[in-house]
Amino acid sequence: MDRIADIWGPRTPHTPGAAWPVRVDQHLEEGLTESDVDRWVQSACVLCSNGCACDVAVKDGRMVGVRGRAEDVVNRGRLGPKGLYGSWQWSDTDRLTRPLVRENGKLVETDWDTAMDLVVRRSKELLNEVGPLSHGFYTSGQLFLEEYYTLAVIGKAGLGTPHMDGNTRLCTATAAAALKETFGADGQPGTYTDIDVCDALFLFGHNMAETQTVLWSRVLDRLEGPDRPVLVAVDPRETKVAQHADVHLAPLPGTNQALMNGLVRELITRGWVDHEYVKAHTIGFAELKQTVEPYTPEHVAEVCRIDANDLRRAAELFGTKDRVVSTVLQGFYQSHQATAASCQVNNLHLLRGMIGSPGRGVLQMNGQPTAQNTRETGADGDLPGFRNWSNPQHIEQLARLWNVEPLTIPHWAPPTHAMQIWRYAEQGTIRFLWISGTNPAVSLPELSRVRAILRQENLFVVAQDGFRTETTELADVVLPAALWGEKHGTFTNATRTVHLSEQAVEPPGEARSDLDIFLDYARRMDFHDKDGDVLIKWKDAEGAFDAWRECSRGRPCDYSDLSYERLRGGSGIPWGTERLYGDHRFPTDPDYCEDYGHDLLTGATTTPEQYRAKQPGGRAFLKAAEYVPGPEQPSAEYPFVCTTGRTVYHFHTRTKTGRSRRLRDAAPEPWVEVSAEDAAELGVAQGDVVRVESERGAVEVSVRIGRCRQGVVFLPFHYGYWDTDSDEHDRAANELTATRWDPVSKQPVFKVSSVRITKREG
Amino acid sequence: MHLATYVGLLHSSLRTLADAFRAVGDGHGEEPDVKTTCQVLAGRIDGQVERLGPIVERYGEHRESEPERLRAAEFEAGFTGARSGGVGLVRDLQDLYALTSFTDITWTVVGQAAQGLRDQELLDTVTAGTQDTARQLAWLRTRIKEAAPQALIAAHG
Fold it and tell me: Number of residue pairs across A and B with CB atoms under 8 Å?
């Protein structure tokens, strides 16, 4: 078995609606066989958002292999290349094993007491001097639920700062925002089994073949089985998905909203709307109809530079197939008008009543394995349990639960989003920034700016990670964290399926779980509730999970009937029902909903009074917005549109996958993809080194010809500098990207930058 | 009939408002959301000015200098002077809020006249304009509320 060459593995086709067949994938360290394994420990893969269940092989106290769990609903035994070759291979490489503190400009090893004393002293100084608004927390989509919830309570009830977010802002914020705008609360409506039975599948800005390989295997088993569903791909590149598609729409980056308005208009004008459903279960049809009216196929074709007949054909497939599933990902989420375009996908489904039954559903995907949990627990820009920051009753509930005054919990505005947290740090009003499990010095846009912020004298930076990274090198204190397999916890995949991940081995050296680090900080900070008892009453992962069960009780993401006991053995279990909204009642009631919504064009919030006046009463919102051209258009100086994205062999900034020999060898260096026409015009050939440059920075990478439409180039975003010798900053795609975000989800616009390309001489 | 006076007032207040949104957007380029949203909103105000064309033709207009006076008073340093820092941003957005409110009530007055005149075209123009103004006010209020605590409490110097 070589999943580098054969990424998706052998096919297991099935008839529509039959259970997806089992296919168990396993990989053990070279020279070992199953009989050498001491024990197998239950977990799930954390190298994409799919959450494939697996067992970790342990021998002599080391992780030595991984095997898919046949009984699990998510993967039925399968694992992708990253899971097989990147799950544990990093575990005994160059890990962080002791805390580091900066002395005379250099990071030096120290003990936990010294490091934590430093953190706590600075934290207390700033609380006295400025107050909680001096503190910001920037976490991940990689920690476990228990760690996020603990962090959320520290931030919201211990310190009382609104400045908490995760790198989930970069990957999944728009999924959450679009679900809130349309349905009133976050929560994935559909389920993967919908793919097993659908007869049309629409992938909107979702290169599933590379981002969720096991899910794409599931799709391939339908595409190569009996009663093949039709496939429609929306992507400016000729991806594997696009190659399999019956209709491939390749809009110019930055024009998704025009395309979506065109599709919705076709549905309406061609009579493919279930008007009874729309009347009974939605609000806003008249305004939607009016908004999309100008988007004729010809007009859309001109804006998006596509063929009007392809648009008509795609709309017809959506409008006439009986069971349609849509998935949405970064092509929409990291683009201009991200939330508006993603809401239009929800609208397509609502217009046909195409939701809540087998094969009829929407999957607003996640990018990271535990992104869903930051959204649920409020470690990102949300409140725990999908509670509504502008509903005083929801704040009361949290205050009662934590036994603090409601005014302690910041709720005068939405929790501060990541891009604004970094701006406050830049302005010097956030002066304590705690980064956990993420590498913003490679993953945020406009890296020269990010590095400058991290270097600011007046900013105290704590970085918590398993390895030294581009970010830890700029921190004041570095805390060594235990990683996957070295700690207990749970996490929830893109379809709400919760998995337990048990500790397989001891962390290296003095590394501690993120949970233990947060609990230690809380203890040292002496956080109390209003009766003088300790604020955080749990001491381990299971205790944190039980506290979270209480916090989530009665909310849409209700975990109260889940327990470690139930999650041990068998399959992962979704919260809620397998598929949401089977009763076509949506969580839009004003007392229950997570958000009162926004104007999609500007991000202006709807007031509670305005929201109540709409009397949603369990109906979903058909939100609409006109298309507006993006703020950065190609020019004579910067004639190409640059998009960034993933390659199948790496995850994020390669902290794990870059330490796996097979994955590193499969994709060792960054590159730029250029269309054959553009390459000819530029006079460059495959392998030539070129300089790709925007107003903000440049990279020097080799050329790969093909896959892009003319005028569009692609850069993978995984590559940074930890494994290079040079001091140049010429590898990371985010040297080029702009500090700019969607008005509603606040997700950065990674997909649309104007660049020029020049051949490097000599 | 004094409608022409109010058509003129509306016309000049919209132009002033579009300029002011652009000035604030340009002056706060380091707040990318402010810059982009101000540009989008200014573009929409330009559209309102355009739609006012037939109304101006029908009723004429007397130009008044109130909005310019208001703007000059609010933007102390004139057209170029966006204020700096977190508090500066809040103050500039607050000035926009005042200018937008002026436009808002001007639309209301013209709308009342349109009803009295039973002029459907004018009523439609007013309805669209009022909706746009509501959007501007809602965004300004949202952004000011977000920015105020940090600017007023955590900023130093």
Answer: 74
